[in-house]
Amino acid sequence: SQQGEEDPQALSIQEGENATMNCSYKTSINNLQWYRQNSGRGLVHLILIRSNEREKHSGRLRVTLDTSKKSSSLLITASRAADTASYFCATDDGNKLVFGAGTILRVKS
Amino acid sequence: GAGVSQSPRYKVAKRGQDVALRCDPISGHVSLFWYQQALGQGPEFLTYFQNEAQLDKSGLPSDRFFAERPEGSVSTLKIQRTQQEDSAVYLCASSLAGQTPNYGYTFGSGTRLTVV
Predict the structure, then answer these.
(1) Alpha-carbon span A87 to A100, nearest angstrom
(2) Chain B residue with minimal CA distance to A31?
């Protein structure tokens, strides 16, 4: 079963625009992670935010975490065609990560 | 190696055939995970190793699935008597971390299994 639920399921934007993806989860967490998956490839770790953090930045990525609402958002600024991929949030469940169903992002050039 | 290596990249099996999928994690990574990813879905946990010990196999869908990591490095996921519903991408990931996933995982490119 998948704990995280991403929203929207699919997102199509123009190059240069910002993309925002949301993730909701059900149980308490120690941390939340975001991954990117290009078509036919494995997942690439993007960023990890701990439960006592509210916001984290990495390059063009900004992640927020609201533990009271059990939700997180991933913002990609100034998107590029190369950002086209599926994006997954993942939460820790004991000794493993549990992934959501993902958001498919398409950036048109 | 520099990354997690999985082989074969693609596997087509006839229904009822046994298959073995290999994962070569990053050297020194303690934790190794197998995930199954159906088309259009997120990865679903199958099993977890810490070194050679299989600490969690709660995600294995049936007793036809078996995983091992005998020397704490390379791991093999074996599926016996494959069924069409086993068709998926099988992803392997490794991590430096011990028991808690406080670090990101490094994933391999996966093995795409198609059962015909």
Answers:
(1) 9
(2) B102
Instruction: Collect all residues with Cβ–Cβ distance below 8 Å to A35 and sequence separation of at least 6.
Output: A43, A44, A45, A46, A87, A88, A89, A90, A99, B104, B107
DSSP B72: S
Amino acid of residue B114: T
Distance (Å) of CA B11 to CA A40, B38, B88, B90: 14, 15, 10, 11
A interface with B, Cβ–Cβ below 8 Å: 2, 4, 30-31, 33, 35, 40-45, 48, 88, 92, 94-102
The count of residues in chain B is 116
CA distances from A45 to A68, B85, B93, B104 (A): 25, 28, 11, 6
Q: Please give chain A's pLDDT, 109 residues, in tens.
A: 456 688 899 999 999 999 999 999 998 898 999 999 998 888 999 999 999 999 999 999 999 999 999 999 999 999 999 999 999 999 988 778 899 999 999 999 9
- What is the pairing mode between strands A61-66 and A71-76? antiparallel
